């Protein structure tokens, strides 16, 4: 019996885990081919163009049915990428689960309060994933653009919104008592727990933001206390944790109340946190997290967004084998897709080989940061992946380099 137990443990660690990760899809359900990519109204408050009702502003181009790097993406592009992943990558990686770190919905803020477009979009994404991968657990996160009014969490409206938009998630998430607030945990197996944090309550743009413990307790059952309990249980049970959170610690829109409390918990439980996964910034980057004593206590990984925010769509596949974490980055060249009239994605790089490290962990991430400072070769690689497909300018000056290096430390 003991032999069989050890044999099964050995199988788990030799085969390890792999998972698909994407973020910030920003799908526009009303995207219209041949509409303008430059518009007379609303372009500067996040609504962008590419709809039938858009009023063109010269100079402009007509957008392709596949998408445009100035616009949120059409359903055709999103469905095509997910299907391409299933057709071309699943047989090799056999994903154990799929992670989406938020912002399924478009930037067209004005229409959101007057329709169910965000609920429809979140349910649409779930359906596309489920239709392609019906037997693979799917773990999503709420992003700031996923709210019923962007960035806002009006108490009664938010509860109703979460109930309607997370209904399908219950296939894979069984902790319904906390899902009502848009955060949850799910034990994947005895070695791993998934924790999804809802950062939108602490968004600086949120009129209804929570910025003290009293309101945290009153409004959302004290998310930080809940997170502490979940992490402590994982520590007791010798579980590693994947921590999912849309807005990164120290990122734009993350208030100090959230940054402070998350840093405390990250430092307290850093021994069991396998990876801190974020979205929100749309760029391919990482952060290093310091406490008040200027000591490194953690790191996070942020992939290129699925949406074409002046770059090509991107996604990642993470692998965890023999206690070694790594990821493989893929991009979908929109120019090539439009020219060939079909979805074509491609391998871009593997993190460990690109940056000459053995494993993604805190020490190696610190070393990578130091290499970016001291080696032009490392920095040029990092910069070339940061926003691939857009109008990337030369970044050879010390001022330009420092800008990208400074944003790593939070």
Characterize the structure shown:
The chain has 410 residues and is an alpha/beta fold. The chain has a single domain, classed as Purple Acid Phosphatase, chain A, domain 2 (4-Layer Sandwich). The chain is built from 14 helices and twelve strands. The strands form three sheets. Strands 3-2-1-10-11-12 form a six-stranded mixed β-sheet. A hairpin with a 5-residue loop joins β8 and β9. α12 packs across α13. The longest helix is centred in the first third of the chain and has 16 residues. The protein is globular. The N terminus is likely disordered.
What attributes characterize this protein structure?
single chain; 410 residues; alpha/beta; Purple Acid Phosphatase, chain A, domain 2; 6-stranded mixed sheet; 4-stranded mixed sheet; 14 helices; 12 strands; 18% strand; disordered N terminus
